[in-house]
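Example 3.2
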Amino acid sequence: MTTQNFRGDFMWYELMSKDPTGSVAFYPGVTGWTTTAMPNPAGEGEYLMFANNGAPFAGCMRLPAEAEAMQAPSHWLGYIGTPDVDATVAQASGLGAKVYMPPMDIPSVGRIAVLADPQDGTFALFCPAPREGGQQDQPKAPIAWHELMTSDIEAAWSFYSTLFGWQKLDDMDMGPMGMYRMFGNGAEPIGGLMKKPDEVPCAMWNYYAHVADLDASVASAQGGGAQLLNGPMDVPGGDRIAQLMDPQGAMFCLHANGAKA
């Protein structure tokens, strides 16, 4: 992977949890992920990680005290690739974004920042540190879809497409739910934008973890203390999804191929 071709890719995920130990215990039984840990490159202790087929793709850390003081719930955060974090932060700020965490280096990992888009959807930026022999391809994460619920689809689309070069692939009419815009970083669809339901208090990104058996995963999640918010249900194309809240209060989504027989 080179700096020319990871712009706009979702490169890492992080669960900001009020109870990281509980979160790490919860997800493997639902998703089939494994867990691992490494010395925390940002400070003391260990950095907990989720892995798929042995390849780490997401981290889990305690929700910062300042975020909890602002009533922020546990939540998943997506890191989007950029070859220049500082320039992208400056561009995003000029487009109306808020900077929650300014650019900082994580030793041996890369440079990151955390922002909120003009409609208050939170996302992160990531530029990986140079690797000996050049950048390596990222293992494919088991995240099937990236979905932004926002108060203004056109404004959000203008922001993200300008920042990351995403392409609009299709607009689907969902009737009373409004338009659903699918986008890609190239020709392959990677996510969608939709008008947030009234009951959702603010704009937010949702991440759909791919599982082999949706009903079994939902049952496992509920058995582990999760709340089922929506589904399981079929979506266009024959796939099935469900939306849930984990025991620590973070919303997460599940995806499986093929309609239920």
